[in-house]
Design brief:
Distance between the termini: 51 Å
Number of helices: 4
Shape: elongated
Largest sheet: none
Number of strands: 0
Structural class: mainly alpha
Radius of gyration: 17 Å
Order of helices and strands: HHHH
Strand content: under 5%
Helix content: over 70%
Length: 117
């Protein structure tokens, strides 16, 4: 009975909307916290080599905004497409992604606080 309730929640379009909204907000916070950690030009602090390359080419904050916008557009299209076929799987994957991004955002703000002091 318990698992049926959990599966029905994870399979709900409302749940997809909620976790997608959380994902978007976490990505905005990731962009903000990345900006704080990297400004004015401490690119070596960025651990993602693709993002670091984009940030160097487009500068900060333009690189962050463009990188996040392109990434979110691709992900929103992919999430929309796959949700139509298998919402349970995509909702589980998005829940895991939300948890991982939450960890990244917390880490970035802690790093910024440590750098600032």
């Amino acid at each position: 009975m318990f698992w049926k309730i959990i599966i029905s929640v994870f399979n709900s379009p409302v749940y997809t909307l909620v976790i997608s909204t959380i994902f978007l907000l976490l990505n905005i916070l990731d962009g903000h916290s990345t900006y704080l950690v990297l400004k004015p030009n401490y690119y070596h602090r960025e651990k993602n080599p693709v993002a670091r390359w984009v940030f160097k080419k487009l500068s900060i904050p333009n690189g962050i905004i463009i990188f996040k916008t392109v990434l979110m557009a691709i992900l929103i299209l992919a999430i929309s497409y796959y949700t139509a076929w298998d919402s349970l799987t995509i909702n589980i994957a998005m829940t895991v992604a939300d948890l991982l991004f939450l960890i990244v955002v917390i880490h970035n703000y802690r790093l910024y606080r440590r750098i600032k002091h």
